[in-house]
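Project outcomes to date are best conveyed with an example. Our students and postdoctoral researchers have been running inverse folding experiments weekly, and each run begins with a structure described purely in tokens. The record below, which covers 245 residues, was selected by the lab manager from last quarter's runs and is presented without edits.
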């Protein structure tokens, strides 16, 4: 059955108009709709937006320790990375990122970050067969013994009493100690700060790696230097006459 000429013309014009709409200026291209924040699943984007501000581009370190350090990834398992990324570290600059803890990332996105860190930067054999000290310790350290441990392993860089030396900054500075938990201090002693030239637990004294108890002791010594109430009050002389504080 043939269509009337006017109806055929109408249908032809409709097809042309629809084709024109597909290519009209301002029409979004296929696949260009923005992805809802909760659905972003790209590791590079998630790491850059949430982690690199402190841990540096590509995890190379900055205000916080490098996450691309294979020694760190050899002692910190996925449960550690997951817990810290999701819940943060209370009392420090490490914020919680999981929505369940007040952050903005879903549990799936936290998992993407953890798996991406592991797959990108962990290296089998990074410890060269050495048995690392445990990531955390339930046994308390001894601050008095820690002072001797410090003199043996640390003073050559960080100076007498930890107040800074030619190769390292002060590790008894009140602000520094106020920003780090004892576990963070322990982690730093074990894995070092390769981005700052600080060696790991094996290389402070050539051929003499630190024993697990020595690490606990030196951490106890550093923690003993932490002020109960961090912050330096203004001296009375700095208060102008008639001023209020």
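After processing, the design step wrote out the following sequence:
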């Amino acid at each position: 059955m043939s269509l009337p000429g006017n109806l055929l013309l109408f249908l032809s014009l409709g097809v042309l108009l629809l084709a024109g709409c597909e290519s009209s200026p301002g029409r979004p291209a296929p696949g260009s709709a923005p992805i809802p924040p909760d659905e972003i699943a790209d590791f590079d984007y998630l790491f850059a937006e949430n982690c690199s501000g402190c841990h540096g581009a590509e995890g190379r370190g900055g205000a916080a320790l490098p996450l691309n350090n294979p020694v760190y990834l050899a002692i910190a398992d996925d449960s550690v990375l997951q817990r810290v990324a999701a819940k943060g570290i209370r009392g420090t600059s490490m914020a919680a990122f999981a929505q369940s803890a007040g952050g903005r990332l879903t549990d799936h996105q936290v998992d993407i970050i953890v798996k991406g860190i592991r797959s990108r930067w962990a290296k089998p054999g990074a410890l060269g067969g050495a048995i690392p000290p445990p990531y955390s310790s339930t046994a308390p350290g001894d601050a008095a013994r820690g002072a001797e441990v410090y003199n043996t392993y640390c003073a050559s860089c960080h100076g007498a009493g930890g107040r800074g030396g030619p190769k390292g900054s002060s590790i008894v500075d009140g602000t520094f100690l106020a920003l780090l938990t004892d576990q963070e201090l322990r982690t730093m002693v074990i894995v070092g700060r390769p981005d700052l030239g600080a060696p790991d637990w094996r290389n402070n004294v050539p051929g003499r790696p630190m024993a697990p108890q020595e690490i606990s002791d030196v951490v106890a010594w550093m923690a003993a230097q932490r002020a109960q109430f961090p912050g330096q009050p203004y001296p009375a002389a700095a208060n102008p006459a008639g001023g209020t504080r």
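Residues 37-121 form a domain with the Cytochrome Bc1 Complex; Chain D, domain 2 fold (CATH 1.10.760.10). The CA atoms of residues 77 and 135 lie 9 Å apart. The training component of this project remains on track.
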